[in-house]
Protein backbone atom coordinates (compact mmCIF):
# COMPACT_ATOMS: atom_id res chain seq x y z
CA UNK A 1 0.00 0.00 0.00
CA UNK A 2 2.85 2.39 0.88
CA UNK A 3 4.54 1.63 -2.45
CA UNK A 4 1.33 2.33 -4.38
CA UNK A 5 0.89 5.58 -2.49
CA UNK A 6 4.45 6.67 -3.31
CA UNK A 7 3.92 5.90 -7.00
CA UNK A 8 0.72 7.97 -7.05
CA UNK A 9 2.48 10.87 -5.30
CA UNK A 10 5.32 10.71 -7.83
CA UNK A 11 2.90 10.79 -10.77
CA UNK A 12 1.06 13.74 -9.26
CA UNK A 13 4.34 15.63 -8.74
CA UNK A 14 5.43 14.95 -12.35
CA UNK A 15 2.09 16.20 -13.70
CA UNK A 16 2.36 19.35 -11.60
CA UNK A 17 5.90 20.05 -12.87
CA UNK A 18 4.80 19.57 -16.49
CA UNK A 19 1.91 21.98 -15.96
CA UNK A 20 4.29 24.54 -14.41
CA UNK A 21 6.55 24.14 -17.44
CA UNK A 22 3.67 24.79 -19.83
CA UNK A 23 2.76 27.95 -17.94
CA UNK A 24 6.33 29.20 -17.62
CA UNK A 25 7.32 28.58 -21.24
CA UNK A 26 4.16 28.71 -23.37
CA UNK A 27 6.05 29.63 -26.57
CA UNK A 28 9.19 27.53 -26.02
CA UNK A 29 8.29 23.85 -25.84
CA UNK A 30 11.95 22.80 -25.77
CA UNK A 31 12.28 24.48 -22.34
CA UNK A 32 9.71 22.23 -20.66
CA UNK A 33 10.39 18.71 -21.81
CA UNK A 34 12.54 17.47 -18.93
CA UNK A 35 14.79 18.58 -16.10
CA UNK A 36 17.89 19.12 -18.25
CA UNK A 37 16.00 20.54 -21.22
CA UNK A 38 17.11 24.10 -20.54
CA UNK A 39 20.72 22.95 -20.76
CA UNK A 40 19.94 21.19 -24.02
CA UNK A 41 18.42 24.37 -25.43
CA UNK A 42 21.54 26.35 -24.62
CA UNK A 43 23.61 23.52 -26.13
CA UNK A 44 22.11 24.22 -29.55
CA UNK A 45 24.25 27.35 -29.91
CA UNK A 46 27.32 25.54 -28.58
CA UNK A 47 26.78 22.63 -30.96
CA UNK A 48 26.47 25.15 -33.79
CA UNK A 49 29.79 26.74 -32.79
CA UNK A 50 31.67 23.41 -32.69
CA UNK A 51 30.05 21.97 -35.83
CA UNK A 52 30.52 25.27 -37.65
CA UNK A 53 34.21 25.50 -36.72
CA UNK A 54 34.96 21.98 -37.98
CA UNK A 55 32.96 22.67 -41.14
CA UNK A 56 34.87 25.89 -41.83
CA UNK A 57 38.27 24.21 -41.64
CA UNK A 58 37.30 21.40 -44.02
CA UNK A 59 35.47 23.62 -46.49
CA UNK A 60 38.23 26.20 -47.00
CA UNK A 61 40.83 23.53 -47.80
CA UNK A 62 38.58 22.31 -50.62
CA UNK A 63 37.57 25.65 -52.14
CA UNK A 64 40.52 28.01 -51.59
CA UNK A 65 41.97 28.01 -55.16
CA UNK A 66 38.77 29.58 -56.54
CA UNK A 67 38.88 32.20 -53.79
CA UNK A 68 42.49 33.00 -54.72
CA UNK A 69 41.65 33.45 -58.41
CA UNK A 70 38.58 35.59 -57.60
CA UNK A 71 40.63 37.93 -55.41
CA UNK A 72 43.40 38.23 -57.99
CA UNK A 73 40.92 39.22 -60.71
CA UNK A 74 39.21 41.78 -58.45
CA UNK A 75 42.56 43.38 -57.61
CA UNK A 76 43.63 43.43 -61.27
CA UNK A 77 43.61 46.82 -63.02
CA UNK A 78 41.52 47.67 -66.05
CA UNK A 79 44.38 48.15 -68.53
CA UNK A 80 48.07 48.96 -68.93
CA UNK A 81 50.86 47.75 -66.68
CA UNK A 82 48.48 47.23 -63.75
CA UNK A 83 46.50 44.59 -65.67
CA UNK A 84 48.14 41.17 -65.37
CA UNK A 85 45.46 38.66 -66.34
CA UNK A 86 43.21 38.15 -69.36
CA UNK A 87 40.74 36.01 -67.46
CA UNK A 88 40.25 33.07 -65.11
CA UNK A 89 42.32 30.49 -66.98
CA UNK A 90 45.11 32.97 -67.68
CA UNK A 91 45.26 33.76 -63.96
CA UNK A 92 45.48 30.06 -63.06
CA UNK A 93 48.09 29.40 -65.77
CA UNK A 94 50.35 32.32 -64.77
CA UNK A 95 50.06 31.48 -61.08
CA UNK A 96 51.03 27.84 -61.63
CA UNK A 97 53.85 28.80 -64.02
CA UNK A 98 55.31 31.36 -61.62
CA UNK A 99 54.73 29.67 -58.26
CA UNK A 100 53.78 26.07 -58.98
CA UNK A 101 50.45 24.44 -58.12
CA UNK A 102 50.96 25.42 -54.49
CA UNK A 103 50.74 29.04 -55.66
CA UNK A 104 46.96 28.62 -55.83
CA UNK A 105 47.08 28.04 -52.07
CA UNK A 106 49.15 31.10 -51.19
CA UNK A 107 47.50 32.87 -48.29
CA UNK A 108 45.63 29.70 -47.23
CA UNK A 109 47.04 29.86 -43.70
CA UNK A 110 45.31 33.20 -43.22
CA UNK A 111 41.93 31.70 -44.11
CA UNK A 112 42.55 28.55 -42.07
CA UNK A 113 43.12 30.74 -39.00
CA UNK A 114 40.04 32.77 -39.89
CA UNK A 115 37.60 30.26 -41.39
CA UNK A 116 37.26 28.15 -38.28
CA UNK A 117 36.15 31.03 -36.00
CA UNK A 118 34.15 32.62 -38.84
CA UNK A 119 32.08 29.51 -39.45
CA UNK A 120 31.79 28.87 -35.71
CA UNK A 121 30.44 32.38 -35.07
CA UNK A 122 28.10 32.20 -38.09
CA UNK A 123 26.40 28.92 -37.25
CA UNK A 124 26.49 29.45 -33.49
CA UNK A 125 24.81 32.83 -33.90
CA UNK A 126 22.25 31.48 -36.34
CA UNK A 127 21.27 28.57 -34.11
CA UNK A 128 21.02 30.82 -31.05
CA UNK A 129 18.91 33.49 -32.76
CA UNK A 130 16.80 30.88 -34.55
CA UNK A 131 16.01 29.23 -31.22
CA UNK A 132 14.82 32.54 -29.79
CA UNK A 133 12.68 33.46 -32.81
CA UNK A 134 11.15 30.06 -33.55
CA UNK A 135 7.43 29.57 -32.90
CA UNK A 136 5.90 26.91 -30.65
CA UNK A 137 6.54 24.26 -33.33
CA UNK A 138 10.18 25.28 -33.73
CA UNK A 139 9.55 26.86 -37.16
CA UNK A 140 10.59 30.21 -38.64
CA UNK A 141 8.52 32.42 -40.92
CA UNK A 142 9.99 34.43 -43.81
CA UNK A 143 10.83 37.45 -41.64
CA UNK A 144 12.51 35.48 -38.86
CA UNK A 145 14.50 33.43 -41.39
CA UNK A 146 15.90 36.64 -42.84
CA UNK A 147 16.56 38.11 -39.40
CA UNK A 148 18.31 34.96 -38.16
CA UNK A 149 20.56 34.90 -41.23
CA UNK A 150 21.21 38.63 -41.02
CA UNK A 151 22.22 38.34 -37.36
CA UNK A 152 24.61 35.50 -38.18
CA UNK A 153 26.20 37.56 -40.97
CA UNK A 154 26.64 40.70 -38.86
CA UNK A 155 28.22 38.72 -36.00
CA UNK A 156 30.70 36.94 -38.27
CA UNK A 157 31.57 40.20 -40.03
CA UNK A 158 32.52 41.93 -36.77
CA UNK A 159 34.21 39.10 -34.90
CA UNK A 160 35.91 37.14 -37.68
CA UNK A 161 35.46 38.10 -41.32
CA UNK A 162 36.70 41.70 -41.40
CA UNK A 163 40.14 41.08 -39.82
CA UNK A 164 40.54 37.78 -41.68
CA UNK A 165 39.56 39.16 -45.09
CA UNK A 166 41.67 42.31 -44.66
CA UNK A 167 44.76 40.27 -43.83
CA UNK A 168 44.04 37.80 -46.66
CA UNK A 169 43.69 40.53 -49.28
CA UNK A 170 46.85 42.31 -48.08
CA UNK A 171 48.77 39.00 -48.23
CA UNK A 172 47.60 38.24 -51.77
CA UNK A 173 48.24 41.85 -52.80
CA UNK A 174 51.74 41.67 -51.29
CA UNK A 175 52.52 38.62 -53.41
CA UNK A 176 51.61 40.62 -56.52
CA UNK A 177 54.35 43.18 -55.82
CA UNK A 178 57.88 42.80 -57.21
CA UNK A 179 59.32 42.79 -53.68
CA UNK A 180 57.00 40.98 -51.23
CA UNK A 181 57.37 42.19 -47.63
CA UNK A 182 55.55 39.49 -45.66
CA UNK A 183 57.61 36.44 -44.69
CA UNK A 184 54.76 34.54 -43.06
CA UNK A 185 51.40 34.91 -41.33
CA UNK A 186 52.54 36.30 -37.99
CA UNK A 187 55.23 38.51 -39.56
CA UNK A 188 52.67 39.88 -42.01
CA UNK A 189 50.06 40.59 -39.33
CA UNK A 190 52.59 42.27 -37.04
CA UNK A 191 53.81 44.37 -39.99
CA UNK A 192 50.25 45.47 -40.84
CA UNK A 193 49.43 46.36 -37.22
CA UNK A 194 52.76 48.17 -36.78
CA UNK A 195 52.18 50.32 -39.87
CA UNK A 196 48.43 50.95 -39.57
CA UNK A 197 47.43 49.98 -36.04
CA UNK A 198 44.35 47.83 -35.37
CA UNK A 199 42.57 49.94 -37.98
CA UNK A 200 44.81 48.19 -40.49
CA UNK A 201 42.98 44.90 -39.95
CA UNK A 202 39.52 46.47 -39.70
CA UNK A 203 39.49 48.33 -43.01
CA UNK A 204 36.27 47.90 -44.94
CA UNK A 205 34.21 47.01 -41.84
CA UNK A 206 31.04 48.71 -43.09
CA UNK A 207 30.92 47.03 -46.53
CA UNK A 208 31.87 43.73 -44.88
CA UNK A 209 28.96 43.97 -42.46
CA UNK A 210 26.64 44.79 -45.38
CA UNK A 211 28.11 41.98 -47.48
CA UNK A 212 28.06 39.29 -44.80
CA UNK A 213 24.71 40.37 -43.43
CA UNK A 214 23.06 40.23 -46.85
CA UNK A 215 24.99 37.06 -47.72
CA UNK A 216 23.79 35.07 -44.75
CA UNK A 217 20.29 36.57 -44.80
CA UNK A 218 19.91 35.35 -48.41
CA UNK A 219 21.61 32.00 -47.87
CA UNK A 220 19.84 30.96 -44.69
CA UNK A 221 16.51 32.26 -46.00
CA UNK A 222 16.81 30.21 -49.20
CA UNK A 223 18.16 27.13 -47.40
CA UNK A 224 15.53 27.14 -44.65
CA UNK A 225 12.75 27.83 -47.18
CA UNK A 226 13.83 24.99 -49.48
CA UNK A 227 14.15 22.55 -46.59
CA UNK A 228 10.72 23.56 -45.32
CA UNK A 229 9.31 23.06 -48.82
CA UNK A 230 10.96 19.63 -49.12
CA UNK A 231 9.62 18.47 -45.75
CA UNK A 232 6.09 19.53 -46.65
CA UNK A 233 5.25 20.47 -43.08
CA UNK A 234 6.66 17.24 -41.59
CA UNK A 235 9.49 18.29 -39.24
CA UNK A 236 10.60 14.68 -38.82
CA UNK A 237 11.15 14.09 -42.54
CA UNK A 238 14.83 13.53 -43.32
CA UNK A 239 16.47 15.68 -45.99
CA UNK A 240 19.17 13.65 -47.85
CA UNK A 241 22.65 15.17 -47.79
CA UNK A 242 22.86 15.46 -51.58
CA UNK A 243 19.59 17.41 -51.53
CA UNK A 244 21.01 19.64 -48.79
CA UNK A 245 24.06 20.23 -50.98
CA UNK A 246 21.89 21.14 -53.97
CA UNK A 247 19.84 23.55 -51.84
CA UNK A 248 23.10 25.06 -50.58
CA UNK A 249 24.33 25.62 -54.14
CA UNK A 250 21.08 27.45 -54.99
CA UNK A 251 21.40 29.56 -51.84
CA UNK A 252 25.00 30.39 -52.73
CA UNK A 253 24.13 31.45 -56.28
CA UNK A 254 21.37 33.73 -55.00
CA UNK A 255 23.80 35.45 -52.62
CA UNK A 256 26.43 35.95 -55.35
CA UNK A 257 24.12 37.85 -57.67
CA UNK A 258 22.75 39.77 -54.72
CA UNK A 259 25.97 41.28 -53.44
CA UNK A 260 28.99 40.90 -55.75
CA UNK A 261 29.24 44.73 -56.12
CA UNK A 262 29.60 45.00 -52.34
CA UNK A 263 32.26 42.27 -52.42
CA UNK A 264 34.27 44.20 -55.04
CA UNK A 265 34.18 47.40 -52.96
CA UNK A 266 35.12 45.46 -49.82
CA UNK A 267 38.09 43.86 -51.60
CA UNK A 268 39.36 47.23 -52.87
CA UNK A 269 39.00 48.79 -49.42
CA UNK A 270 41.03 45.98 -47.86
CA UNK A 271 43.84 45.98 -50.44
CA UNK A 272 47.26 47.59 -50.02
CA UNK A 273 46.07 50.56 -52.12
CA UNK A 274 43.05 51.23 -49.91
CA UNK A 275 44.60 54.56 -48.84
CA UNK A 276 43.66 56.15 -52.17
CA UNK A 277 39.96 55.84 -51.25
CA UNK A 278 38.43 58.23 -48.73
CA UNK A 279 35.60 55.86 -47.87
CA UNK A 280 33.63 52.90 -49.22
CA UNK A 281 31.37 55.33 -51.06
CA UNK A 282 34.37 57.10 -52.60
CA UNK A 283 35.71 53.70 -53.67
CA UNK A 284 32.43 52.91 -55.42
CA UNK A 285 32.40 56.29 -57.17
CA UNK A 286 36.01 55.95 -58.37
CA UNK A 287 35.46 52.40 -59.64
CA UNK A 288 32.36 53.59 -61.54
CA UNK A 289 34.20 56.58 -63.07
CA UNK A 290 37.46 54.84 -63.94
CA UNK A 291 36.39 51.32 -64.83
CA UNK A 292 32.67 51.46 -65.56
CA UNK A 293 29.72 49.60 -64.01
CA UNK A 294 30.89 46.18 -65.22
CA UNK A 295 33.82 46.45 -62.80
CA UNK A 296 31.37 45.85 -59.96
CA UNK A 297 30.87 42.32 -61.26
CA UNK A 298 34.55 41.48 -61.79
CA UNK A 299 35.26 37.97 -60.55
CA UNK A 300 31.59 36.97 -60.63
CA UNK A 301 32.12 33.69 -62.52
CA UNK A 302 34.96 32.37 -60.31
CA UNK A 303 33.07 33.63 -57.27
CA UNK A 304 29.89 31.91 -58.45
CA UNK A 305 31.67 28.58 -58.92
CA UNK A 306 33.41 28.92 -55.56
CA UNK A 307 30.36 30.01 -53.60
CA UNK A 308 28.00 27.37 -55.02
CA UNK A 309 30.56 24.67 -54.21
CA UNK A 310 31.41 26.31 -50.90
CA UNK A 311 27.85 26.73 -49.61
CA UNK A 312 26.74 23.32 -50.85
CA UNK A 313 29.67 21.57 -49.14
CA UNK A 314 29.33 23.70 -46.02
CA UNK A 315 25.68 22.87 -45.40
CA UNK A 316 26.26 19.17 -46.14
CA UNK A 317 29.14 18.95 -43.66
CA UNK A 318 27.38 21.09 -41.07
CA UNK A 319 24.15 19.08 -41.23
CA UNK A 320 26.15 15.85 -40.85
CA UNK A 321 27.96 17.07 -37.74
CA UNK A 322 24.78 18.48 -36.20
CA UNK A 323 23.01 15.14 -36.72
CA UNK A 324 25.96 13.38 -35.11
CA UNK A 325 26.11 15.80 -32.17
CA UNK A 326 22.37 15.51 -31.59
CA UNK A 327 22.83 11.74 -31.19
CA UNK A 328 25.88 11.75 -28.89
CA UNK A 329 25.58 15.17 -27.22
CA UNK A 330 22.33 15.48 -25.24
Features:
mainly alpha; Mitochondrial carrier fold; 10 helices; transmembrane
Overview in brief:
It is a multi-pass membrane protein. This protein is mainly α and 330 residues long. The protein contains 10 helices and no strands.
For the biggest sheet, the summary is:
none
Low-pLDDT residue intervals, each spanning 5 or more residues: 27-39
Number of strands: 0
In percent, how helical is the residue content? over 70%
Radius of gyration: 24 Å
CATH topology: Mitochondrial carrier fold
Shape: globular
Question: Class, according to the CATH hierarchy?
Answer: Mainly Alpha
How many helices in DSSP terms? 10
Which class best fits the helix and strand makeup?
A: mainly alpha
Within CATH, the superfamily carries the name: Mitochondrial carrier domain
CATH architecture: Alpha/alpha barrel
Q: For the residues shown, what is the average pLDDT?
A: 82
Report how far the terminal alpha carbons are from each other.
37 Å
**Any idea how many domains?**
1
Written overview of the protein:
It holds the Pfam family Mito_carr. One of its GO terms (molecular function) is citrate secondary active transmembrane transporter activity. It comes from Ceratosolen solmsi marchali. It is a multi-pass membrane protein. The protein is mainly α and 330 residues long. The protein has one domain: Alpha/alpha barrel (Mitochondrial carrier fold), CATH 1.50.40.10. Helices cover 74% and strands 0% of the residues. It is built from ten helices and no strands. It has helices at residues 2-24, 37-75, 88-99, 108-133, 142-176, 185-196, 205-231, 241-270, 280-291, 300-328. The protein is globular, with a radius of gyration of 24 Å. The two termini are 37 Å apart. 42% of the residues are buried.
